[in-house]
Design brief:
The complex is a heterodimer of chains A (221) and B (161). With 221 residues, chain A is of the alpha+beta class. Chain A is built from eight helices and five strands; from the N terminus they run H-E-E-H-E-H-H-H-H-H-E-E-H. The chains are: A alpha+beta (221), B mainly alpha (161).
Chain lengths: 221, 161
């Protein structure tokens, strides 16, 4: 039978101390890394009052407001886009609705990079084109496609070739903004992507997300 | 049986500790998802759920490390057992209230399609882990533990043998 020696006790206390240290550091870094930053660089067309979302037709009055919470890597979001994307684009170009895109990043690092790149495309006025290109070419989750190289290729495919866009994608300029959007979603209890709100009210995910006619009537009332 | 017990203890430590470290690790680096997973249970006010989602992965990692290394096994096992019991409560209330969520135990989480819920198997798994925690709490001595004789078991061992 082993006996409890003094040295055993010291080792024990050291190890306990180290484990507590790891846990404490982990928790502290998680809190700091996840805090919203008021100093975060913010892309164009983003308004703090609209929860850091990318706003199209922000000055439109008396028209429906559509809030879209989505993640570029989420398959259901790609399905939603395939069904309703063209209609949403039409609403934007014909100035029939104000549309706010909240780009979440639940699915992992490549969601963050894709959201950043989309914000870069917004700076260049090509947000909608880039947005639908990313969904139309959605890879498997975190497969390595939505890293800078793939995202720059995606940009080039819709005519985003400026050096400004490239450096914005490469430097992940809007990393802090992506965190702010995520925290805004967390505080608004968004627990699924896509989540779609019309005039501030969530529409029915079982019937109105996957049917264009139902979605149209939800928007147009 | 006396010869077998330390090996059983080792097995229990590896299973429970391994599950905890894996579960914590898979969540600790996607915290917006971890927060969402806790919110989706609809048990706490949203800000509380978000804090919980940030801290939980690291607590799991901590308890898991203690079990794997074999230090303070009784306390770590008690903590793990309480945690698993709490998870069972959380999953059961979600099931009873008709929420359709993923347990988010190993990453993932949030609302899912009702046809994809797996409440029963999640509860059975956690119940198994509760039993392992009980075992380790009662018989914390095991092979290859850094702490040969858990402090609070010295008297028991002396009495038994």
């Amino acid at each position: 039978m082993a006996t409890q020696s003094g040295r055993d006790k010291i080792t024990r206390n050291i190890v306990i101390g180290m484990v507590i240290f790891v846990v404490a550091i982990g928790v502290i870094f998680s809190f700091i890394g996840n805090k919203s930053s008021v100093d975060a660089v913010i892309p164009s067309n983003v308004s703090k009052s609209d929860g850091y979302g990318i706003v199209l037709n922000g000055d439109l009055e008396g028209k429906p407001v559509i809030d879209l919470w989505e993640d570029f890597q989420c398959p259901s979001c790609a399905r939603f886009e395939a069904i309703n994307g063209a209609y949403i684009q039409q609403l934007v170009t014909e100035k029939k609705a104000k549309v706010i895109f909240h780009l979440l990043s639940f699915i992992g690092p490549e969601s963050i990079l894709a959201a950043n790149a989309a914000a870069c495309s917004s700076d260049e006025g090509k947000y909608l084109q880039f947005h639908s290109y990313l969904y139309a070419n959605q890879p498997t989750e975190n497969s390595g496609k939505w890293t800078s190289v793939g995202l720059l290729e995606a940009g080039a495919a819709v005519g985003l070739t400026s050096s400004k866009f490239k450096s914005c994608v490469n430097a992940v300029t809007y990393n802090g903004w992506v965190t702010n959007v995520a925290n805004d979603g967390a505080s608004k209890n968004i627990n699924s992507t896509p989540t779609v709100l019309v005039n501030g009210k969530e529409i029915d995910r079982n019937t109105q997300y996957t049917d264009l006619t139902a979605f149209k009537s939800a928007v147009e009332g | 049986m006396r010869r077998l017990k330390p090996w059983l203890g080792l097995f229990a430590r590896l299973v429970l500790g391994g599950v905890l470290v894996t579960a914590g690790y898979l969540k600790a680096f996607n915290l917006s998802q971890a927060k969402m997973a806790v919110r989706a249970y609809e048990m706490f006010p949203i800000p509380v759920a978000n804090i919980f989602g940030l801290a939980l992965p690291w607590l799991e990692i901590g308890a898991g490390l203690l079990l794997l290394i074999g230090i303070s096994v009784r306390y770590a096992a008690a903590f793990a057992g309480a945690l698993m019991f709490f998870f069972i409560l959380a999953i059961s209330q979600a099931w009873a209230r008709g929420l359709s969520i993923d347990c988010g135990c190993f990453g993932g989480g949030g609302q899912i399609d009702p046809s994809q819920t797996r409440y029963l198997s999640e509860i059975v798994r956690d119940a198994g882990l509760v039993l392992i925690s009980f075992y380790l709490f009662r018989y914390p001595t095991s092979r290859f533990a850094l702490e040969k004789l858990p402090e609070n078991m010295i008297n028991v061992e002396k009495r038994e043998g």
